[in-house]
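Field reference: sequence -> structure
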Amino acid sequence: MLRDLAGAGDLPALMHQPPPGGRRHERQIVADFLAKERGIQAQAQRIFLVGGAQQGWELPHVRCYGRMT
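Structure field:
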């Protein structure tokens, strides 16, 4: 994925923080992987990429309560 970004010459994509949930093409890559390797049909717009485990664990709490306690 990084090789693809670097080869595309899109320097801003490499230098700036990605949007919350990930870039569209990255989410599509994950959806394609899930379909091919795991047999899971997922739509890219329903995939949310996070930066790590802690962020992933916090996400449902923020979604339910609107903030971290």
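Note: Residues 24-38 form the longest helix (15 residues).
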